[in-house]
Design goal:
Blueprint: H1 9-18, E1 30-33, H2 36-41, E2 44-48, H3 59-74, E3 79-84, H4 89-100, E4 104-110, H5 119-126, E5 130-134, H6 136-140, H7 145-155, E6 159-161, H8 168-180, E7 187-192, H9 196-205, E8 210-215, H10 223-235, E9 242-245, H11 258-271, H12 280-292, E10 301-305, H13 313-319
Parallel strand pairs: 2-10, 3-4, 3-6, 4-5, 7-8, 7-10, 8-9
Antiparallel strand pairs: 1-2
Helix pairs in contact: 3-4, 3-8, 4-5, 8-9, 8-10, 9-10
Bound molecules: pyridoxal-5'-phosphate.
Length: about 325
């Protein structure tokens, strides 16, 4: 809804033909969060509302897909193939983007074909994505060149977007978030899964200020190395002005606790901004906790990235019957 007038495929690709840097969805809004507790702590907090970019291709999904779509089109490839679980935000967004920009889309889904499709898979099918199911053992080998080759034999040529959408072009897309922020700031925060979005922020910061990632997964010792590797690949520099906080994963990926759900409900009530429990809820919970515990010096200005993920909310609620967010 938000930037719908900019969404035609011809606008998208003609824009790109002229300038790689133009974002066809326009900069997402930067919203100041007003709260007495922030005033008391001497902190200014802004939210970069990437959740408003598009109802179906929102947040970091759009940032990550953008240059990949362009690359596929540039190379004359008309089929996108990607991987994901039955509740994957990435599958959801790729299906929507493929439809919008006129690609054929293939989704390779982890696990056996379910008798009842998850809301995410139903949505993907409604957008014309062709779904294939891969048993968990084969799925673990999905990136193996022989496996990809046999998929090419079955399906024909395709542009491969990795699971979660993270690759160097995704990092370039996420780096543009920094260019859009037109106020001075000290910190930028994001939720972390694969580390692609954080790597993009690090690339965009070019060694200035600090990026803080909040991991949604339990201690992943390879994650920091991955952020270094991706940001270095894209920029040619070894930037170390970032950290990843592993204190707020609430037990691991897609695990929730009552205090997290209470926080998300309260956030919606106070600020009228919806979060979800897998990524953004954990990041904002962690950030608020750090502010309350004086982990930022007075006078700091923080930008927190709302990476979206709300399109997966109905899928998540389906996964946890009885969980209510509002
Ligand atoms: C809403 C949301 N926020 C944050 C992330 C984490 O992003 P990344 O995998 O780039 O670390 C994801 C996962 O892709 C996500 O869906």
């Amino acid at each position: 809804m938000y930037y719908d007038n900019a969404l035609t495929p011809s606008f998208f690709f003609s824009t790109f033909a002229h300038s790689k840097m133009l974002n066809p969805f326009n900069p997402s809004p930067l919203q100041k969060l007003e709260d007495d507790f922030l005033v008391e702590k001497g902190i200014e907090l802004y939210i970069k509302r990437d959740d408003l970019i598009h109802p179906e291709i929102q947040g970091n999904k759009w940032r990550k897909l953008k240059y990949n779509l362009f690359e596929a089109r540039l190379n004359g490839i008309h089929t996108l193939l990607t991987f994901g679980g039955p509740y994957s935000n990435h599958i959801y967004a790729t299906a929507a983007a493929a439809k919008l920009f006129h690609f054929r889309a293939i989704g390779i889904i982890r696990g056996e074909e379910p008798t009842v499709l998850s809301p995410t898979l139903k949505f993907a099918e409604s957008k014309g994505m062709e779904l294939y199911y891969m048993d968990r053992e084969s799925y673990r080998q999905k990136d193996d060149p022989t496996n990809l080759e046999s998929l090419r034999v079955q399906i024909g040529d395709f542009y491969l977007i990795p699971e979660g959408g993270t690759n160097p072009l995704a990092v370039e897309g996420a780096a543009e978030i920094i260019e859009e922020i037109d106020i001075p700031f000290d910190y930028i925060c994001t939720a972390v899964g694969t580390g692609g979005t954080l790597a993009g922020l690090v690339a965009g910061l070019k060694g200035e200020k600090q990026a803080i990632g909040f991991s949604s997964l339990k201690g992943e010792d390879t994650l920091t190395a991955k952020v270094f590797e991706l940001s270095e690949f894209v920029t040619g520099f070894h930037y170390n002005n970032f950290s990843i906080n592993f204190d707020y994963h609430f037990g691991g990926y897609a695990k929730v606790k009552p205090e997290l759900i209470a926080f998300i409900k309260d956030f919606k009530l106070k600020y009228n901004i919806q979060l979800e429990p897998v990524y953004t809820g954990k990041m904002f919970y962690g950030l608020f906790d750090m502010i309350k515990n004086d982990r930022f010096t007075r006078g700091s200005r923080i930008v927190a990235l709302h990476t979206g993920g709300l399109q997966g909310l109905s899928g998540f609620m389906d996964y946890f019957p009885g969980l209510e967010l509002s």
